[in-house]
Write a structure and sequence with these properties.
single chain; about 325 residues; alpha/beta; FAD/NAD(P)-binding domain; Enolase-like, domain 1; five-stranded parallel beta sheet; about 30% strand
Length: about 325
């Protein structure tokens, strides 16, 4: 195990006391589940939702238990639904004013909230958890507005924390993650970083697909070929039975973008395409995600879709947003 990088000497120190010289080295140290920095976050009964061990721990929660999931993103929704399906009394608390605010606009998020609540998950928005109380184990969670919710378990689903300690110790430029340029090189020549530990253009992706794309670029760079990474067009797919959500690209469509919308709130369906200069820039699909793969391909390719809009909306009644 590498415990120290001596960048000046281009040497790695191992935990067995040995050292290894390098000409180039890549950091792929990944990330860990984040926890809110609040009192009581380490009490027994407080969990994260990240790996198989976490899932095993949550699967042992009894049907009579009350659980609070903190975080209204993908992981939070999936954790809350999984617990509700097992008969656990679940409340999901999210600090923002809508669910999945990084992937959905207000209309899509409102429909999603209704669909999730129909699955047995109680949703609290604008809910800022400030303290977890308990004597020996978690008993209740306190919020900024003074509300206290009695619970038997708390699950943090609030994103990732890049594992950047090794890079920081080596004197590399570290923000939220290990900062890299378009060549995936850090502030130290010959030291690269990829995956969930890396921060590129201010973004830590925390997703598998960008890590694959970065890995391909890094492999070419290490092989002496010219290659650069310009960022990833990521897509979101919510894995909750009966609640289909897809989002990709510039889903807001501000400025001179054209927003084409088909919606039926009663049926829980919302489809939105964002178009600029006859190019598909982004999309939101809630309730009906048919064609999501084709839409993602079109966003990434930048192909002309001027003759495809009706087909992409599957002939549904459309209206152009004002």
């Amino acid at each position: 195990k590498v415990i120290k990088i001596d960048a000046a000497a281009r040497r790695l120190l191992l935990d067995n006391g040995e050292s290894v010289d390098y000409s180039k080295v890549a950091l792929a140290t990944g990330s860990r589940a984040a926890r809110l920095p609040i009192e009581g976050a380490d009490l027994p009964g407080v969990h994260v939702f990240r790996d198989v061990e976490d899932v095993d721990a949550l699967s042992r929660l009894g049907q009579e238990m009350r659980a609070l999931v903190i975080g209204g993103g993908l992981l939070g929704l999936e954790a809350a639904y999984g617990l509700a399906r097992r008969g656990v009394d679940v409340t999901l608390a999210h600090v923002m004013d809508r669910l999945m605010e990084r992937q959905l606009d207000a209309v899509g998020a409102d429909i999603l909230r209704r669909l999730v609540e129909e699955k047995g998950v109680r949703v609290l928005l604008n809910a800022n958890a400030t303290r977890i109380n308990g004597s020996g184990r978690v008993e209740n969670v306190e919020f900024a507005d003074g509300q206290r919710i009695p619970v038997d378990a708390v699950i943090f689903a609030v994103g990732i924390q890049p594992n950047a300690d090794l890079a920081r110790q080596a004197g590399l430029n570290v923000g939220r993650g290990v900062k890299v340029d378009d060549g995936l090189e850090t502030s130290e020549a010959g030291v690269f970083a990829v995956g969930e530990c890396a921060e590129h253009r201010g973004v830590c992706y925390g997703l598998v697909e960008p890590a694959y794309e970065q890995g391909r670029v890094l492999a070419m760079r290490l092989a002496g070929q010219d290659a650069s990474y310009g960022g990833s067009v990521v897509s979101t797919n919510l894995k909750v039975s009966g609640v289909r959500v897809f989002s990709a690209g510039d889903y807001l469509g501000e400025g001179d973008a054209r927003r084409i919308v088909c919606k039926d709130p009663r049926m829980g369906i919302y489809r939105k395409l964002v178009v600029r200069d006859d190019r598909l820039m982004g999309a939101i699909l809630v309730g009906d995600t048919n064609g999501a793969a084709d839409i993602l391909d079109l966003i990434r390719s930048g192909a002309d879709i001027s003759s495809m809009c009706d087909e992409l909306m599957f002939g549904a009644p459309m209206q152009e947003a004002a």
